[in-house]
Specification:
Elements lengths: L1 E3 L5 H17 L7 E3 L5 E2 L33 H9 L8 H8 L1 H10 L7 E5 H6 L1 H8 L6 E5 L9 E3 L7 H9 L4 E6 L4 E9 L4 E2 L3 E5 L9 H5 L4 E4 L6 H17 L4 E10 L2 E8 L9 H8 L4 H20 L4
Parallel strand pairs: 1-2
Antiparallel strand pairs: 2-3, 4-7, 5-6, 5-7, 8-9, 8-10, 8-12, 10-11, 12-13
Bound molecules: adenosine-5'-diphosphate and magnesium ion.
Length: about 325
């Protein structure tokens, strides 16, 4: 069990990993916890630094469950280390993890697959510094409001909604987003409600009943950092109050996006739904994972209880490792 991590979601990860450890024990597994500090150092339960040898696996560990969110955890970097150690691990591999963290690259890929999503444009910091006026003119086609986001972050950090009047201006929002990432995505605003759907499996994944994110009516009117992490900031309504057609579309798109991205084990697929119009927002390869988090809550509502969910994820990790290692390299 890996928890903590270097990203701003360190604390969130500790909450998730404590819950996962408890659930795994309940399911009959023996669990060893390793906490990755904000400084990046891995420490065992006694506080001793963990030493690892490439190719040697991790002593006494059969499967790693990296319950890590955001950069340096959910983005393929830790997954690369686990591949190098040659140990099975839960969740997406290197490429799918990195891909799903990158809002620009994932949107390009989804677009090619014909998966419906918002209109968007990517801006690099070099271009923004060289010709800001041309960039602003090009972004006009998206209209207002738009959402401006660092390409590879999470938890709504660095994201701004630029309204059609009033602050922040597009210029200010871009400057702010470039503090976090040299690549920024600007998206047309999607209308409707936010719906999430959990996916479980490897090559033949299943989708949960979709749930609806109901915001407590925060200042911003969107799912910002505060709404995500203030107790009572959001409420999950299961099932989502959408039509049968929209519900089936959400589930089909969740599975398709999962497969197109090459995900494995789990992902939470997030959508905007307006009537029968369903747009994919993003896939999270390691979503919040306490027993009451959206990911687990949606499967609980779909008849898969938390210990059972964890047991299946461990089995999927072993299956994937065996499948990958069966190929010549
Ligand atoms: N194009 C959009 N239209 C409407 N709302 C959006 C749009 N993009 C983001 N949002 C709002 O901002 C929130 C965070 O954006 P998201 O892309 O999911 O970033 P993160 O990876 O940080 O979760 C969404 O849950 C939603 O409330
Ligand atoms: Mg999101």
């Amino acid at each position: 069990m890996l928890g903590g991590g270097r990203s701003s979601e360190h604390e969130v990860s500790l909450a998730s990993s404590a819950s996962v450890a408890e659930g795994l024990r309940e399911a009959g597994f023996e669990v060893r916890s390793v906490v990755i500090g904000r400084d990046g150092v891995w420490r065992d339960h006694a506080g001793d630094e963990v030493s690892l040898t490439p190719g040697r696996g991790i002593p006494e560990i059969d499967v790693v469950f990296p319950v890590l969110h955001g950069p340096f955890g959910e983005d393929g970097t830790v997954q690369g280390l686990l591949e190098t150690l040659d140990v099975p691990y839960v969740g997406a591999g290197v490429l799918a993890s990195a891909l799903c963290m990158d809002k620009v690259v994932s949107k390009e890929l989804m677009g090619r697959a014909g998966i419906p999503q918002v209109d968007y444009a990517a801006v690099t910091v070099g271009r923004w510094r060289d010709e800001p006026e041309a960039v602003l003119r090009e972004l006009e086609v998206l209209g207002l409001p738009v959402f401006v986001k660092p390409a590879r972050l999470g938890s709504s950090v660095g994201i701004a909604r630029v309204p059609d009047s009033g602050p922040p201006t597009l210029r200010v929002a871009l400057e702010e987003a470039f503090r976090y990432d040299p690549i920024v995505i600007v998206e047309a605003r999607a209308s409707g409600i936010e719906v999430e759907c959990s996916v479980l499996g490897n090559r033949d994944p299943i989708a949960s009943i979709p749930g609806e994110i109901l915001l407590a009516g925060g200042e911003s009117g969107w799912y910002d950092y505060e709404a995500k992490y203030t107790p009572g900031g959001m409420r999950l309504v299961v099932p989502a109050r959408i039509s049968q057609t929209a519900c089936e579309r959400v589930q089909a798109l969740a599975v398709e996006a999962f497969l197109r991205s090459g995900c494995s084990g789990l992902a939470r697929a997030d959508f905007f739904v307006d009537g029968e119009t369903v747009l994919v927002n993003e896939l999270n390869t390691m979503p919040g994972f306490t027993q009451t988090s959206v990911y687990a809550a949606l499967f609980a509502a779909s008849g898969i209880a938390y210990p059972e969910l964890l047991t299946r994820l461990v089995a999927l990790a072993v299956e994937r490792h065996g499948f990958e290692r069966a190929h010549s390299f």
